[in-house]
Amino acid sequence: MGAPEKSQANANSMQRVKVYRLNEDGKWDDQGTGHVTIDYMERSEELGLFVIDEDDNETLLVHRISSDDIYRKQEDTIISWRDPEYSTELALSFQESTGCSYIWDNICSVQRNLHFNSLNNETFHNANSELRELPAVELSTLPLILKTVAESGIADQMRLTELILSDQDFFRKLMGLFRICEDLENVDGLHMLYKIVRGIILLNSPQIFEKIFGDDLIMDIIGSLEYDPEVPQVQHYRNFLKEHVVFKEAIPIKDSLVLSKIHQTYKVGYLKDVVLARVLDEGTVANLNSIIHGNNAIVVSLLKDDSTFIQELFARLRSPSTSAESKKNLVYFLHEFCSLSKSLQMVQQLRLFRDLMNEGIFDIVSDALQSQDKKLVLTGTDILNLFMNQDPNLLRTYVVRQEGIPLLGLLVKGMITDFGDNMHCQFLEILRSLLDSYTLSGAQRDTIIEIFYEKHLGQLIDVITASCPSEGNAQSSSCSGERVEPPTVAKPEVLSNICELLCFCVLHHPYRIKCNFLLNNVIDKVLLLTQRREKYLVVAAVRFVRTILSRHDEHLINHIVRNNLLKPIVDAFVGNGNRYNLLNSAVLELFEYIRKENLKSLVKYLVDSFWIQLVKFEYLSSVHSLKVKHEQVLCSFWIFSNIYCNL
């Protein structure tokens, strides 16, 4: 193709990977991290895989690509093989699935060329004596062209591709015949043209794809594929593309190349997924996906480098004169633009996302999250997820600014709002990423955590208390001390997510949690979930307590004992009876943890307070072992008491 695609090939030539080698013990040894490329071997015309260390530019791996079937693609990010030269198993683990697909496609392409080149030249020419030239492209020769395309072997296919490409007017003439046959309603001719075009596409030649997917031919190519002789009715692909597919230009795109690539990408995808979905082989699908991937990269690259376009986009989003419908379409476009950026190299993606942050994309998302339109809210969360997957610090940097503080509140509100379609899970994931203490550092960490605990944790607890009506819980219990309206009863899924976030906070912010929980009786309020009829919410409350105990914090343990907080858990366990379910397992695991970790005050409290209820479950090893541990604890207390008295 043209220069933009050549630059895209260069941009994707280096991919970040880890190199692994299987040792004699059957374990994979990490050989280092670098960038992989396919290039010519030194003083050779053979192609090989090269991995260059990302730190010192030393060569980590050199492997001559073999024509043998030794390569395997595992999942989306691993390519492995047994190297015949060194008799060892090797693997490349890619950072990006797109990079893995790109290298895999290139390995397959090199192997195909090796198979072609291995054919004996003399046999090749003898076998192809009939293919020294193609038949003239005329109505009368369509049967001969079809025979040439349909009956070509591997060697014939290579020669056929060369002959087709050498005739600059081949496809123009072929599509001219298609239009004539369609005008004359020549069904036999249309059926032959379908088979010819399908066979040419299955040659899987990138050079042929470049020709037939051009603006001047692609609609006629799709039209010729409407006349499948195996389908009783003529299809109407062109009619669908012309009349039902609406290209919404949220903002005018003036670059003709960008527009051309956008339209081409949709049509190639339509051909792949609809028109020829049942006949394409894996290799052809891979090449068509490469075209789509390359087009996406070109579109994003050209648009991101057009400063005028980006500025106009954000100016329209901010303008009060822009209608609500237009703003909605602009947000959808912005989301698609961010999604397509995955086609770029990692460094380019990061630079683009930083530029978008500087232009004010998070302000736009904040507005979208306040919309009553569920689809628009979902689009806003998708944009935030793209940023969190790319570089979480970009969003964190914004949230700690004065203008960014409301966004954290919108995320909390979104998590407890019933949007349906499990959208609250997306809000949960974003909040977890923002509050992740393992990836936060310094002042940024302290600011985000402080904002969350002072302004928003109370909202989450209020949702639980309002959804589990109990005496004394009618008033709002906001931990921030502010009087807020009590929330409405939340869906069970929302309550489960709140519990999950609270468990996350216990593990990541132990000091903050201790102060907040003790001052505001948070544990007591979360345990109100044991009154719910949904068993998985009762289990969520049990796991919450189990997570707190994993901190081994004496203040929190004493608070649990002093306030008799395990009573609702024991009551739920006893009420569950002999049913062996998730609740049964969760409570028994809690008992087992208390015993194994030798939390003496909890062992004594549990058995002293609830043994009358638990005795009928003594046949369970966890309950019996708890009783034994209680006797050991009492014995140790008695021994220490005697020693103390004797002193």
Features of this protein?
647 residues, alpha+beta
Give an overview of the whole structure.
The protein has 647 residues and is α+β, with helices and mostly antiparallel strands. The protein is built from 30 helices and 7 strands. It has a 7-stranded antiparallel sheet, with helices on one face. Helix 22 packs parallel to helix 25. The longest helix has 26 residues, at 442-467. It is elongated and about 100 Å long. Residues 1-14, 120-129 and 471-486 have low confidence and may be disordered.
Briefly say what this structure is.
The chain is α+β, with helices and mostly antiparallel strands and 647 residues long.
Strand content range: 5-15%
| Helical percentage | 55-70%
- The global form is elongated
Radius of gyration: 33 Å
Distance between the termini: 94 Å
Mean pLDDT: 84
**What's the arrangement of strands in the largest beta sheet?**
4-3-2-1-7-6-5
The count of strands amounts to 7
Give the uncertain stretches in residue-range form.
Answer: 1-14, 120-129, 471-486
Structural class category: alpha+beta
Biggest sheet character: 7 strands, antiparallel
